[in-house]
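Shipment paperwork, digital attachment
Item: protein structure file
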Amino acid sequence: MTHWSVYTDGRPSHTISGDVRIAHAVHSPQLNNSRDILLYLPPSYWASEKRYPVIYMHDGQNLFDAHTSYAGEWGVDETMQQLSSEGIEAIIVGLPNLGNSRISEYNPYPSPRFRHARGDKYVQFISDTLKPIIDRDYRTRPESRSTGIVGSSMGGLISLYAWLAHPNVFGIGGAMSPSLWIARNAVFDHVRQAPFNDGRLYIDIGTRELPRQFSQYANAFSDSVAALRDHLEERGYRNSSRLRYVKERGGEHNEASWARRLPNVLRFLLKP
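Attachment content:
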């Protein structure tokens, strides 16, 4: 049985809002490693018998607590507290990355440059090991239309991959500023070949994703996400209630930009 404790217990310094739990050293047989798992519960959880959709998110150390963040906090807990007043509630599961293993675990497409692509095993860890734990320990809505996976940059790439590869598990997907350049846009072939997912997908990009010294590549970065939208539409993902593409003026490749866009991302993905 997985032991969940209150995240703030014994932490004199934190920036947590609401009820966030932690399970230490959850083992992945797929990856042969372990990591702490964070979990946010909606305000109505303990006062009701409701079941809730679940969103799995990557780079967990950046989601809830500025004291653990290495690049800025997304404020997922504050966002969900705010959305609850609009009747939008969900359980959010945060998976911290393991530092040097981040790129390999978030990359599902092997290439000469990135040979150690372990993204498929990472997604299997979420779907086959972690999800059953969450569904056992908490009142979830376990069906695919209520199960989501959301991330940014490399986390956006692996979220897109999971949504394409496992439509029977993840009916909700969010890829913010996805790193589509990995394996020379291999994800485009995946879009063409993957089984159709009749759930919802959100993709976005900012107009200032790259630092000024790399401005010559900015259009290519932005155009790749627009091309992803085009490929998805060619596959039949044309319904605006199922696919949303956003290009944010001034949006950068950082936590502050993703945190700013997050409320509308979740409004779209979690709307009834």
